[in-house]
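[job 4471] stage=fold_predict status=RUNNING
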Amino acid sequence: MPSTTIKQVDTRLVDIEPETLRTDASQTFVRQETILVTVETEDGLRGTGYSYTIGTGGSSVLALLRDHLAAGLVGQDARDIEGVWARMLASTRATAFGVLTSLALAAVDTALWDLRCLRAGEPLWRLAGGAHDRLPVYDTEGGWLHLPTDALVENVSAAQARGLRGAKLKIGKPTAGEDAERLAAVREAVGPAFELMVDANQSLTGAEAVRRARTYEPLDIAWFEEPMPAEDVAGHARLARATTVPVAVGESMYSAGHFAEYLRAGAAGIVQVDVARVGGITPWLKVAHAAEAFNVKVAPHFLMELHASLACAVPAGLYVEHIPQLGAITTSELVIEDGQVVPPETPGLGIAWDEDAIAELRVA
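[job 4471] inference complete, writing structure tokens
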């Protein structure tokens, strides 16, 4: 039996309180359920991966791992990441492609990539491609929908003062005029060189998205994120043809095939693939390289502690989103210099887990 054979798989669920109140046009970020998977091989090497939900469903992901996937991993070679991923997918055909299955696969797949990098003694960003040694960062934490205009101006100005390269503002107020007024106030405060992005969190109809996009064009908005439900590929394609503002999609897409539909239709100007929601690093890289083939950039959603490495790994990497996720259960911090994130050089995912904090916050 090779020393790289999987001997044991441990699964845990941890509840993390958001660092600030987070609201958008569709929901409030109640809590972050973090699913942790640790894979141990015969030689004693241990790799840890994770995925997450933003309120509910964590226990269901954990049950899928515990009751159906974990036992099947024992005896497989941890080096065969593509094969392991494909076999996990095949074993869950009745629930794939879907949210819970993708989140479960991602927790395992990121653990296997952690093992691969640890075994090679290399950081993730280099082993997965090594395209960039740093990328610009934009802020999301200061742009939530519940905040009044003066708070938005203050928060975005503070992000600019810290050297970050842009900021994202949530939209979805009752009228287009109210959204436009808030954005105009921020643009006036930060000037023309600072990038501003907007995010509707799937809240608009196709017609309303076209209408609101026209109000963003004079403000030179960097992208219009999730304007409509992710299932509406045709609507996003119509919007992309109707506006000069790039359309950004991806956080609510759970398979590489869904991204392929968007790219073929010309419906995605920016790809925001999320490693947890798409099923792991293995499919994430496929999406990122497909985007590159269509001359589309990648600015991944959330998971900054992991996406800092992945965005730097691929040629299409554009931005890393600054929205802290794992501070309560880790001892490592991302390095940001002159508004750019420097991916971790430590072998593995570059995340140092705080086992004492995990034990304290563990709920299952």
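[job 4471] summary: The domain at 6-121+354-361 is CATH 3.30.390.10 (Enolase-like; domain 1).
[job 4471] exit 0
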